[in-house]
């Protein structure tokens, strides 16, 4: 029977952890326009991005004053889903709200 050597096991686990790459992350952005209401943008931020009302207002004001606001940072798939959800809701309510994603 072989003897148990925890230091070797720890080395192997450590090497495996070092080899795992984190997936690239993407910022999801909302863009200002002259037609989408501020209230709708706040609702989108609460519903789609799970922001607290205070956070949602802060992001909405960035969109309004700076032309763009960061909604969050997610994996590619999650970002793509959120962008699609924003566009679907905006279309449903008749707003031209633009939402994009960019690699961080």
Short description:
The chain is of the alpha+beta class. It is built from 4 helices and 3 strands.
Explain this structure.
The protein has a single domain (22-103), classed as Ribosomal protein L7/L12, C-terminal domain/Adaptor protein ClpS (Ribosomal Protein L30, Chain: A). The chain is 53% helix and 20% strand. It is built from four helices and three strands; from the N terminus they run αβααβαβ. It has helices at 6-19, 38-47, 53-66, 76-92; strands at residues 25-31, 68-75, 98-103. The protein has a three-stranded antiparallel β-sheet. Helix 2 (38-47) crosses helix 3. It starts with 5 loop residues before the first helix and ends with a strand.
The computed structural class is alpha+beta
CATH secondary-structure class: Alpha Beta
How far is it from the N-terminal to the C-terminal residue, by CA? Answer: 51 Å
Report the mean per-residue pLDDT as an integer: 90
Q: Write down how many β-strands occur, each being a DSSP E stretch of 2 or more residues.
A: 3
What would CATH call the homologous superfamily? Ribosomal protein L7/L12, C-terminal domain/Adaptor protein ClpS
Shape: elongated
Total discrete domains: 1
Number of discrete helical segments: 4
**Global Rg:** 21 Å
Q: What is the name of the CATH architecture? A: 2-Layer Sandwich
Order of helices and strands: HEHHEHE
């Amino acid at each position: 029977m072989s003897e148990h050597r925890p230091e070797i096991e720890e080395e192997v686990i450590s090497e495996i952890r070092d080899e795992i790459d984190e997936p690239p992350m993407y910022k999801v952005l909302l863009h200002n326009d002259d037609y989408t209401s501020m209230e709708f943008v706040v609702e989108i931020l609460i519903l789609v991005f799970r922001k607290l009302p205070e956070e949602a207002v802060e992001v909405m004001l960035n969109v309004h004053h700076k032309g763009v606001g960061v909604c969050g940072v997610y994996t590619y798939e999650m970002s793509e889903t959120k962008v699609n959800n924003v566009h679907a809701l905006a279309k449903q309510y008749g707003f031209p709200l633009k939402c994009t994603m960019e690699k961080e």
